[in-house]
Structures are given as structure tokens and as C-alpha cells.
Amino acid sequence: MIRSVVLAAALIGSAANASQSCFARAYSDSHMARNPNQTVEVMWIAFQGDANNARHVGDWADTTVQLKGEGGAFFERLFCDGANGSKVTCRVECDGGSFTVAWRNSDTILVTTGRQGFYVTSQCEGAVNRVVKDRGAASTTYRLNRVSVEACPKRQ
How many Cα atoms within 13 Å fall on the side-chain side of residue 147? Predict the structure, then answer.
């Protein structure tokens, strides 16, 4: 169901909004079967700030993921640095991990986790963090495509 929503939203097209942008991907069942160590089924990243060039994606990234076998969605806000060459780094506070963003083209980004991945949590108090990274991988790269701003889940 969530995968269908992401794919439908992608077909709507992206809204021109210089202060926010959304990137997402719902991985197909066949992709997940070919990649049994992949834990992310769906990922959305809403960047706050100008995410229209390779030097910057915004000040923070509201990241929501649906993980294989977990049910529901998990959220985390990452704070993003300026570009280091052609990549931007976004970090979870208190050593919660990080990812880098590299632009493949104007509508596609590559999000690569750090060695430890990065943590996301459910919205419930006392919830256990989940790690975003393929099982057994040194790091994981996810290819996300620009979708309409409305396609990204809103932080509660």
C-alpha cells in the first residue's frame, strides 16, 4: 500500500518549491528478492532548504523509512553540512550515524550510509532505534528520485 502511494505521488510530478524538496523510492518485490540483505523497502527524504544543486540539500533532512519485516514507518531528522566536494553529509545527533548525498542528475540523488548506517525510530517514546543499512554491508547506497513535496510524510 505505501509503495503504491509513493509511486503514484512520483507520477504527479515535483512541485517547484525552493525551500523544500522530496526524494523517494519504493523498492519492488523483485528488487528485494534479488537483494535479501536489504532492509529498506521504502525511503522518503524531505530536505528543508534549497535542494536543487550539487553543493547543498538544505539544513536538515526529515527521513522516513519502511523496513522489511518491521511494519509501520520509522523517522529521523538529520542535520546537513555544506558540501564536501560534490557530496553533502547529513548526521543524526548524538552519534546516531550519517549519510552522504551525491547528485546523479537534477532529479536523482545517491544516499550512502556511513559504516554504522544511521538510526531511525518509531514516533513512540522509549522505542528502540532501527539501523538503516543493509545487513552485513560496510555501507549502503540508495538511489532516490525527486517526487512532489506532498509525497513525503509530514513529521508529527
Answer: 23
Cα–Cα distance list, 21 to 64, 91, 95, 110, 130 (Å): 14, 18, 25, 15, 25
Q: What does DSSP assign to residue 56?
A: B
What's the predicted TM-score (pTM) here? 0.79
Other CB atoms within 10 A of residue 12 CB: 11
pLDDT tens digits, one per residue of 2-58: 554 444 344 333 334 446 889 999 999 999 999 999 999 999 999 886 655 555 677
Give 145 or 4, the one with higher predicted confidence.
145
